[in-house]
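Listing S7. Sequence submitted for prediction.
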Amino acid sequence: MDQDVRRIALTGLAVLVFLFVGRAVLGSIFDDEGGARAVALVQRKLVRGGEAGSRPDPAAMSRASAQRTELRDTLAELLPRISYTQPQEFSVPEGASADLAYIQVLRREQQNLVQGARFIGKSVPLDLGMPVPNPTGLEEVRDALRALHVVQRVVSSALAADVAAVDSIRLPKGPRRRAKGGELVRTHAVEFELHGSPRSVHETLRAVVSGEPWLALDEVRIEAQNDDGTLVSCRMTVAAVSLDREQLTELEVLD
């Protein structure tokens, strides 16, 4: 039983760290330590709860069973909040050509984001960071459209926050996988560089982690671009996170 609790606790820790990472990053940048403290507190509690000691007595078994149920309930509540769901407008319609659908969505977003930015005196990379040549086949197109949705979320947030420019957008090669012995956590990441006032960058980051579906922030670096600190650059990685529910079931984390 205590091994089951430990397994669920460690899985819960991984999920919770993903959930709180955006808040922790914002806190470390803008002097709000609440998010970081929340992650540390969760980590201490989960690790303590997952440690296995000597053979438990009936009372310890009862407590472990209650804790296991509590952790399962917590995970069941958290998973829908962080698991990425691809919107219809960034999906391939049933029976449609994947290659053609990709071109149509890319052109739509270039019109909305690139031309829209120019209209208000901003700049966004023309290709939106998408791969050249275009992806082919259903799987490649689905991955590219997922990345394009991340781009749409970030660029829209940046323009709404009045950043001066989105300087670069880049897709790392291949989705990242974070799992022990499998693909429990899979991230589709996009790297961005933008610049503007500290307030505009702050508002961009806050909008990215506050929207739906939830996106994770990672590797955020902010640097002053002038002596008085009124202009900053921001490099960051933003990722859509998906969790393999079949593996969670196999690990007995979910029913």
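Caption to Listing S7: primary sequence and predicted structure tokens for the chain studied. Residues 19-33, 177-181 have pLDDT under 50 and may be disordered. The chain has two domains: 2-82, 88-247.
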